[in-house]
Design brief:
- The complex is a heterodimer.
- Chain A is mainly beta.
- Chain A contains one helix and nine strands, in the order H-E-E-E-E-E-E-E-E-E.
- Chain A has one domain: Macroglobulin (MG2) domain (Immunoglobulin-like, Sandwich).
- In chain A, strands 1-2-3-7-6 form a five-stranded antiparallel beta sheet, with no helix packed on it. In chain A, strands 5-4-8-9 form a four-stranded antiparallel beta sheet, with no helix packed on it.
- In chain A, strand 2 and strand 3 form a beta hairpin.
- Chain A is globular, with a radius of gyration of 16 Å.
- The relative contact order of chain A is 0.21.
- About 10% of the residues of chain A have low confidence.
- The relative contact order of chain B is 0.16.
- In chain B, strand 2 and strand 3 form a beta hairpin.
- By secondary structure, chain B is mainly alpha-helical.
- Chain B has 14 helices and four strands.
- The chains are: A mainly beta, B mainly alpha.
């Protein structure tokens, strides 16, 4: 009974991971959820990534690369923490069509996780 | 019977030249052409009629060079799509690289083969000061301006009075040069007509595009993956790649390409983060702010536009390849051993047949316009 009560209390916290402002793509591991959206995403143009990380980590990085081409972006994004586990990364650019992979590197304590999400850009 | 056979052959030929939905989207991405004009936020006289007029005069002005004999038009000839036909440019001395075209130059993000400049006006300053090109100085340019009543009058019409210090004056003149170069646009091509016909499903328009060019286009957007880097309406992604062209300038001297270009960019007082940009909130400086220097940038050079490239031989950053066919052969037979071991894994030898190579050249030739938009007019010293 106590266990069910504990789970019931925890459940709203897990559901609270959200990124206000529109639809967002989830990327999950066993312990971490990243919700993100790109603003906007067109080939050859700089774009931003708005994202939320739950639970709020101590540090976060975002990068992207083309695994098939074995190269990353030509630009290093800067990240601004907006509070409450929400962030905005600026300065990303996908300079060619094909399969790109976003990589969110999330550090909490001594643990660093890498959460990846593939997108195909035409 | 014969008529029936002919119909079958025509149908087969049509199928062979048909494009899938994904291919049509890929073809559509190379237009529309021409793109709409968008003023450069870092240049307060971008699109200004008087600035364009002054810039045109400056483009052909030889007195700014240290020997009084070299203008921008020495290497950028309209009839050669604003290149010079030489393997490597020559001003006061031989330069290390091939003259890049200034047609459609306003569409670029980085300027020069190494992208050492992030604005067209900053790019205009570089050859004026380079001792191998015009070998001049801000002081020499300012002295000439102050002594020439007509140029001075035109300057004041554009920028107002009084005249600033020499360095700022040089930047202003480069901004007028930039305003002129922004007007240099190539015209519509057979490919553009085909692309638009394809999108509106105009069978007659589609049929006008020659079969070899259609087959070459298939290779360009498909097996050749050429459009991976030669992307968008200008057929360039505006970024930098190692294409396996040797970067030795001469024995013992190498061209570091983008690696050195990024260093020059970030240390230049003329970059978009510096004091001369007219873009108050630096909205156009995102690339300069975020560009990152990596070892793989060594030997990378900017992807050139392919529009009107039949007029811009010889090819590659050092003019090493004489003809379009040589370029196609380069990518057909490229040796992966020549590419950076820690670089991109994009290029592989295409191993094209003779027919395929000819078709790819036919497609590239279909990117030529009917003559561009520039007509040189006589200059009169009549400014009031």
């Amino acid at each position: 009974m106590k266990r069910w009560l504990l789970l019931a209390l925890l459940a709203p916290a897990a559901q609270a991971c959200e990124l206000p402002g529109g639809a967002a793509q989830p990327v999950k591991s066993a312990t971490t959820t990243v919700l993100f959206r790109t603003v906007p995403l067109r080939i050859g143009e700089h774009f931003a990534v708005e994202f939320a990380v739950c639970p709020t980590p101590q540090a976060v990085k975002v990068d992207a690369w083309m695994p098939d081409h074995r190269h990353g972006m030509n630009y290093k994004p800067t990240i601004a923490a907006l509070g409450g586990g929400r962030y905005r990364a600026e300065g990303l650019m996908f300079h060619m069509a094909g399969r790109w992979e976003f990589v969110f590197e999330v550090r909490s304590g001594s643990k660093t996780e890498r959460l990846a999400h593939s997108v195909r850009i035409e | 019977m014969r008529r029936g056979l002919l119909a079958i052959l025509v149908a087969v030929a049509q199928v062979a030249h048909a494009f899938s939905d994904a291919q049509v989207r890929a073809i559509a991405s190379h237009g529309p052409w021409p793109p709409a004009f968008k003023a450069d936020p870092s240049n307060r006289v971008s699109g200004n009629k008087d600035a364009i007029d002054l810039g045109e005069r400056l483009f052909f002005e030889r007195r700014f060079s240290s020997n009084g004999d070299i203008s921008c038009s020495r290497c950028h000839l309209a009839e050669r799509n604003w290149t010079d036909g030489e393997a490597r440019a020559r001003g006061l001395a031989l330069v290390d690289r091939n003259t890049p075209s200034v047609a459609n130059v306003r569409l670029q993000r980085w300027f020069g083969w190494d992208g050492a400049q992030d604005s067209l006006w900053a790019q205009g300053i570089r050859p004026i000061l380079d001792p191998r090109e015009m070998g001049s100085s801000a002081a020499q340019v300012a002295t000439l301006m102050r002594a020439d009543a007509d140029l001075l009058c035109r300057y004041r019409k554009v920028f107002g009075a009084p005249l600033p210090d020499d360095d700022k004056l040089l930047v202003d003149l480069a901004k007028a040069l930039s305003a002129f170069q922004e007007t240099l646009a190539s015209g519509r091509t057979a490919f553009d007509e085909f692309r638009d016909a394809l999108l509106r499903q105009d069978a007659a328009g589609i049929a006008k595009y020659p079969a070899p060019a259609k087959r070459g286009l298939h290779i360009f957007i498909g097996r050749g993956s050429c459009s991976t880097c030669h992307a968008g309406p200008a057929f360039t992604n505006g970024e930098f790649h190692d294409t396996g062209v040797p970067f030795f300038i001469e024995p013992g001297r190498v061209d570091p390409g983008r690696h050195e270009g990024i260093k020059k960019l970030l240390s230049s007082r003329y970059n978009l983060l510096g004091p001369y940009s007219d873009d108050a909130n630096r909205s156009g400086a995102t690339g300069t702010k975020h560009v990152v220097l990596e070892h793989r940038n060594f030997g990378e050079f900017k992807t050139p536009s392919l529009r009107n490239l039949a007029l811009t031989a010889p090819y590659m950053h050092n003019g090493r390849l004489a003809t379009l066919r040589d370029v196609v052969n380069h990518y057909s037979n490229i040796s992966p051993d020549r590419l950076h071991s820690d670089g991109e894994a994009i290029l592989k030898p295409l191993q094209l047949s003779e027919q395929e190579a000819q078709d790819l050249v036919a497609f590239l030739q279909s990117l030529q316009d009917g003559g561009g938009n520039y007509r040189r007019k006589p200059f009169a010293a009549d400014c009031r």
